[in-house]
Amino acid sequence: MAIPNTYALRLPLTTISLVLVAGLLIYILGSWQADQLAKNEGQRLGNALAAQLAQSIRQPIIHNDLVSLQVSVDQLVAKAEVAGATVYNPQEKLIAQSGIRSERPQEEITRYREALIIENKTAAFAGVDINTAELSARYHTPLNWILAVWLIFGAGLSAHSLITGRRLSLQLKNLCNRLPSDAEAENSGDELTQLSDRLTPLLTQSLSAEKDSEPTRQIATVALHCKNLDRLEAQLSKENLQRLLRQLDDDLAQIVTLYHGERSPGREQTLFIEFTGDRESGDHPLRALCSVHLLLKLAERHAQSLGVGLALSAAVRLSNSGQQGSLMGDFDREKRESEVIRLARLAERNEILLDSATSLHHTLQDVIAAEEVSESSDLYRLESFSSSHQSLLEKQFRYLISQ
Questions:
Q1: Using CB atoms within 10 A of its CB, is residue 64 exposed (0-12), middle (13-18) or buried (19+)?
Q2: Strand (E) or helix (H) holding 354
Q3: What is the pLDDT of residues 227-263, one digit of tens each?
Q4: What domains appear along the chain, each with residue ranges and CATH number?
Q5: Each residue's pLDDT tens digit, 111-143
Q6: Running DSSP on this structure, what letter comes out for residue 347?
Q7: In Å, how far are 15, 20, 163, 172, 204 from 160, measured between CA atoms?
C-alpha cells in the first residue's frame, strides 16, 4: 500500500515503521545474545553441579547407603535451574533419580555427567539435567523491559510526529493556497512538491526580470608602479624604508575608504585599486583618477621628507565586471591587472596614463584634460583637472596630510 501524499499521514507512518523495524532488530539481536548467555551459563552450571553431585554421593556409594544417596539427589533437584538428577552404576543401570523430566520439552533439557572415581575405578556416574528455559528466561527479562521502554518511547515519538506532520501539512497548504497555480499543480504530489511547482515559475520570472533590469557593471582598475624600489632599498635604512612603506599603506587605506574603492593584492612592484560602477551613470573613472592623483602627491611628499626621490608611475584602465567569486572572475582580474601594469610601466615618473575608454568616458568630458601620447597610440596622458575639481583635490590633500 502506497503512503498517502500528505505529510499529515506520511510522517507518522514513516516514524511508526522505523520504530517497529528498530524494535524487531532489538528483539532479534537481544534474543540471540540472551540465548548465548543462557547456553554458556548452563554449561558452566551443569558441569559444576554434576561434579558436586558426584562428590556428595561418594560416601553413600562406598557404604551402599541408598537412603543417603537419594537424599543427596533430592537436595540437588531443589534448585530452580535443575530439572532432574540421576545416578547410574558403571553398567549404566539407574541407582537413584529425582525430578520429573517428562513434563518439559526435550529441547529445554541439557544433561551433564560426571564420573565418580574410587580407587582408580569408575564407581558410578552422576547426571544433572539443566533447565535451559529457566536460564534463558532470566536473560530475556531485561530484554523484555528494554522492548517495553522502546515501545513506549516509540509511541510518544509517533504521537509527536503525527502532531508535527499535521502542522507541517497545514502550513504548507496555507503557503500553497497563497500562490497562483493551475489544476495540474494542485494534484501533483505532496505539499512540498505542490509548493515547489508553484514557486518555480515565480522564481524563474523573478530571476529573468532581475537579469533584464540589472545594469551593466564596469571596473576602473588603478595601478601604481614603483620604478626605483631597488634603489630606494640601497639609499634608505631598513627602518626608514619600512616607515615610508607604512605611510604609503596608511594613505592607500584612507583613499580607498574616501573614494569607495577596493584594494587588490599587489605584485611586480605594483599596487592595485579597483572602483566599480554602472557603465552609463557611474563615476568610477573619476574616483579612480582622483585617488591615484592624491596617492602620487602624498608619496612624493613622504619621499621628500626622507631626502630621496620616489619614481612612481600610474595608469587607469576600464573593463567589464567579471563574475565575482568564480574561477572565471579570478582569470578576468588577473588579465585586468596585467594590462594595467603594462600601461603603468609605459608612464613616466608622476605620470598617469589612461586607456581610450577611460579618457573618452562621458562622465570625464568636462572634468579632465587628457592628451594623446602619440597619434598611433590609443593611450592618453592626464594633464589636469577642471578648476573646481582641482580645488576639491587640494582640500582633500590637506585633509589627508593632517591625519
A1: exposed
A2: strand 352-355
A3: 888 888 888 888 888 888 888 888 888 888 888 888 8
A4: 7-136 (3.30.450.20), 217-402 (3.30.70.1230)
A5: 888 888 888 888 888 888 887 777 788 888 888
A6: S
A7: 10, 16, 5, 18, 37
